[in-house]
Amino acid sequence: MGWLNDETGLERNAANFVPLSPLSHLNRAKRVFPDRTAIVDRGRRFSYRDYHARASQLASALAGAGVGPGDVVATMLPNTLAQAEAHFGVPATGAVLNTINTRLDPDTIAYIFGHGGARVALVDSQFLPVAEAAIARMEGDGPRLIEVADDAAGFPASGRHTEYEDFIAAGDAGFAWVMPGDEWESLALNYTSGTTGRPKGVVYSHRGAYLHTLGLSLDWGLSRDTVYLTIVPLFHCNNWVHTWSIPAVGGTVVCCRDITAKAIYDAIADEGVTHFGGAPIVLNMIINAKDADRRNFDHVVQVYTAGAPPPAATLAGIEPLGFAVTQVYGLTETYGHVVECIWREDWAELPDEDRYAMKARTGVAQVMMEDVTVLDADSMAQVPMDGATIGEVMCRGNVVMKGYLKNPEASAEAFRGGYFHTGDIAFQHPDGYIKITDRSKDIIISGGENVSSVEVEGALMHHPAVSLCAVVAKPDDKWGEVPCAFVELKEGASAAEEELIAFARERLAGFKTPKQVIFTELPKTSTGKIQKFELRKLIDAV
């Protein structure tokens, strides 16, 4: 019998076990890097001492407003100082942060407010009318709105709600943070894009976010010299946890409210930005920038891109400009990216076309994930790694969500067989690199946003002239993919393409609206099921 079978006196205690939380990163940074620049928001610069103090004031003000452990605080904010502060200030009260996609429609936002039970919502003045419209649709009281004005961006305070700076001014910069008693406590609530029906609430733990921040730091080579630009929205998987990560290394976050080529080039040239993440549309924006918007810089900028494989033409266009692009993959349910196309030195001498094809592979598991592979969805057996046999991408590890809020059935199905089922179809190469080939739920990824074909079809079916419709992805140079609708009209009815697009736009967010409508008889199986693969062939033939 080994001596470690006797564990007497080896129990956890306050000295040897502290619950993991990304909050610890900012607490440490305040002590270790008090005078280093922590965050830049246009003309405003804040040290780690300042950043911590303002997050503490927010936490104190929220506590004074009745927010406590387990409560939910929502945000509808662009990538500005207040949104970054909320990532620390909200959980510092023991509350759960719910960052809401600012592009959503009032009905969906009303559902999220109600389902998540938000007590307070921090809302940028630009999005205040949408938030107010959402609350007006709710049964009972919605969250208390705190307005975050942005005069510099042309969005002054409306005067209808307490303004953010006034709100936190009443808070105590010395507020004692409520750290988690258990690292499994909930840190954040993020809603999926609603692939079928209403969006699902994905719950993150303090533990998962903390481990993801450390894994990111290792894989991406973050350091005190890192200057990170917030292009990925902080409402997308909490900015892929990037903003939580930077204080761990004492780097600098640069806020970017409006994502334009000029803003990106200016941040790189003026602030020395070294890292950012973004969808392929951002890469194309940089490549196609006007000469007047370009700036010179003398260092290589590290870029993570996700949402769709970067086309070879995009890689060929952006790399000579000073950007090193790496494809990553993940989902809301995995706190953002968990797969990376890790560069292999033996690819360096390949011809450009072959090298870019290698970089377009989805990749292998990142360090924060225990296993990401391709399994047969029914048998849960590993598919042959032959570059051809398809299966479903499956994940397991410490950065998989806790589950779906108030939906144990969906959680159980997602975790069936001891893996998280992504719903993405892929094959694996002999070296283990995954290559995604399709999405089992017909998700359209437009400009980095997930669009549910079912939701778009449901909106179009409300038009009195529409008998049947199907929506599939159409390749687009700017957005990567856009929704394209195929429509069968009722006998004797008529409708124009522009009419149906406008009809859908009244019911959907702009990025979900079809960009083309094709009138045709839809191909169907003998049982009446629409054959979407045939529709994709029609698009390819156009």
UniProtKB/TrEMBL annotation:
> Molecular function terms in GO for this entry?
ligase activity; metal ion binding
Q: Keywords on this record?
A: Fatty acid metabolism, Ligase, Lipid metabolism, Magnesium, Metal-binding
Q: Where are the transmembrane segments?
A: none
**Which reactions are catalysed by this chain?**
3-(methylsulfanyl)propanoate + ATP + CoA = 3-(methylsulfanyl)propanoyl-CoA + AMP + diphosphate
Q: Where is the AMP-dependent synthetase/ligase domain?
A: 28-405
* Gene3D superfamilies (alphabetical): 3.30.300.30, N-terminal domain of ligase-like
Q: Which GO terms describe its biological process?
A: fatty acid metabolic process
For activity, the cofactor(s) needed are: Mg(2+)
Pfam entry (one)? AMP-binding
- Extract the NCBIfam families matched here: PRK08162.1
Membership in a protein family = Belongs to the ATP-dependent AMP-binding enzyme family.
Question: What quaternary structure, including any partners, is listed in this protein's UniProt entry?
Answer: Homodimer.
What is the protein name for this chain?
3-methylmercaptopropionyl-CoA ligase
The organism encoding this protein is Maritimibacter fusiformis
Supply the source organism's classification: Bacteria, Pseudomonadati, Pseudomonadota, Alphaproteobacteria, Rhodobacterales
